[in-house]
Amino acid sequence: MAHYTQSNDIAEINRRLERSERMLADVQRLSKTGGWEYDIDADSMFWTDELYALHGFNKPYTDNLIASSLNCYPESVREKILNAFILCKNEGINYDMVVPFTDRQGNRKWVRTKSWVVLDPDGKPAKVVGSVRDVTEEVTAENRIIAALKEKEIMLAEIHHRVKNNLTIMSGLLQLQAMSNENPEITQALNISVDRINAMAMVHEMLYESEEFSYIRLNEYIKRLTNKIAADYDQGHLTRVKKQLDLRPIHIEITQAIPLGLLLNEIISNAYKHGLANMEEGILRIELLEVDDACRITVSDNGPGFRQTDRQLLSGNLGMHLIKTLSDQLGASVDVTSTQGTHYVITLAR
């Protein structure tokens, strides 16, 4: 009776083992994954059926499995894979890589090959276990996505380039109109519009030059904008202006870049045209800092500042109206003080 029970137990164990093996084989076929095990002491290699199928080898296979498998990889990666296997076997360093692969029938694929080491009770490498999975579909899909993204990046760059060119044409037309106009007030208004258009065009120019199209480097933009305004101002004025720029590297999103650029254009232009006008030597200081979750921009000059009457006159000025409108659009605060010069402090949440 005991012998009968023991036989039943063995039969049940064998049935469970066969079931597990069938399930493992089915899972390997579904996932296109083959497994292998290398016994270091015995110098022997074992492959699962799915790994033979992935290589296109028929069983029984009498050639050297390691050498035959390496021949399925391009020459450019064979040494890399072999060295990784040796390091894993000798030093227990696992590897995981995605590489091109060609089976015996000439079918080109991409595979992900991984290995990990099994240690003996003394902590020394005893076996190397690995897997090879066919990831051709995943790599192909990823390459298509990368190609599509690259195409969109090229299109976006071209769009920004064309927008910048169109704005430059508009700026040029307004400049021609200003040059041919004999009314000083109209000429001044046209030149101010040119400056505003150039401030917008500069954003698109930086986006075209950049590898990223969702944000710009604010510190670089402020530097370019300030130099452009300074160059335009220096052409017709005697005041010497010393620029002091302390700009930390900060990025802002494109949705913030254009309104902030227009806002800065108004403030910096006002500093040159009003705050620093008729001075022997002026100082313009611009500081860009990151404070908590916001960036803070300070624009200061050493001019005479605003008198109360000046504030009342400027309150109806288009430039001051733009400063308020743009700051509201950005959700930014703009604080103005006029002690020992004029000081604008812009705080913008990021």
Structural description of this entry:
By secondary structure, the protein is an alpha+beta fold. The chain has 4 domains: 1-27; 32-134, 2-Layer Sandwich (Beta-Lactamase); 147-213; 214-350, 2-Layer Sandwich (Heat Shock Protein 90), CATH 3.30.565.10. The protein contains 10 helices and 12 strands. The chain has helices spanning 2-31, 49-55, 65-70, 75-91, 136-180, 184-209, 218-234, 254-275, 308-314, 318-330; strands at 33-39, 44-47, 95-102, 108-119, 125-134, 215-217, 240-247, 251-253, 281-291, 294-301, 333-337, 343-349. The strands form 3 sheets. Strands 2-1-5-4-3 form a 5-stranded antiparallel beta sheet, sandwiched between helices. It has a 5-stranded mixed beta sheet with strand order 7-9-10-12-11, with helices on one face. It has a two-stranded antiparallel ribbon with strand order 6-8. Strand 1 and strand 2 (44-47) form a beta hairpin. The radius of gyration is 36 Å and the shape is elongated. Mean pLDDT is 83; it is low at 312-316.
Strand/helix succession: HEEHHHEEEHHEHEEHEEHHEE
So, the CATH homologous superfamily of the largest domain? Histidine kinase-like ATPase, C-terminal domain
Assign the CATH topology of the largest domain.
Heat Shock Protein 90
What structural category do the secondary elements indicate?
alpha+beta
CATH level 1 name of the largest domain: Alpha Beta
Approximate shape: elongated
| CATH architecture label name of the largest domain | 2-Layer Sandwich
Report the total helices.
Answer: 10
Largest sheet: 5 strands, antiparallel
Fraction of residues in β-strands: 15-25%
Average pLDDT works out at: 83
Range of helix content? 40-55%
Strand order of the largest sheet: 2-1-5-4-3
Distance between the termini: 80 Å
Based on CA atoms alone, the radius of gyration comes out at: 36 Å
Ranges where pLDDT stays below 50 over 5 or more residues in a row are 312-316
The number of domains: 4
Annotation, overall tally of beta strands: 12
